[in-house]
Amino acid sequence: MLSEPIEVTHALGKDLDTGQRNVDVLEVEWHETAKSRMRRKTKGGQEVLINRTDRGSFQDGDILYLSDKRVIMLRIKSCDCIVLRPASLQEVGTICFEIGNKHVPIFMTEQEEVCVAYDGYLYQMLLSGGFAPAIEERVLHPFQMVKAYGNMA
């Protein structure tokens, strides 16, 4: 028996009381969190149609659907990342300049690390530039993305 897709136009929030409801997870890649339209299946097999009405990004843990029996929660998949731990503000600037020239999204963590999705060419470039990049599996959160405008403190 096929069920109709659940249409999601916005996130309902985070940290909502799910009570005894069954929690189903919709996994997306980091670069899909700002998509306005997509169709995916949850881990439990429920088809979800994302048809956003706002211009924001989904965050890890957002509740997308809530009924008497079920909750659909968004999870951002982890991915291989290049992680740099700059020693100074000047080094942050240099790293971000070098990465920014490749037009790759840059993420800054609370631990003052610079993270980007893994790219072999970029990794080799950073190594040859005298930096000490590490490859680690991480979740790239949209709120950590550095933008030329609109960053929130």
From TrEMBL:
Gene Ontology MF, one: unfolded protein binding
A GO-annotated cellular component: cytoplasm
UniProt xrefs under Pfam families: UreE_N
Superkingdom assignment: Bacteria
Keywords in alphabetical order: Chaperone, Cytoplasm, Nickel
Main localization, broad class: cytoplasm
Lineage: Bacteria, Pseudomonadati, Bacteroidota, Cytophagia, Cytophagales
Gene Ontology terms: biological process: protein folding; protein-containing complex assembly; urea metabolic process
Protein's name according to its UniProt entry: Urease accessory protein UreE
Residue span(s) of domain UreE urease accessory N-terminal: 9-72
Keyword Chaperone belongs to the record: yes
Similarity remark: Belongs to the UreE family.
Family matches, as InterPro entries: UreE, UreE_N, UreE_N_sf
Task of the protein: Involved in urease metallocenter assembly. Binds nickel. Probably functions as a nickel donor during metallocenter assembly.
Localization: Cytoplasm
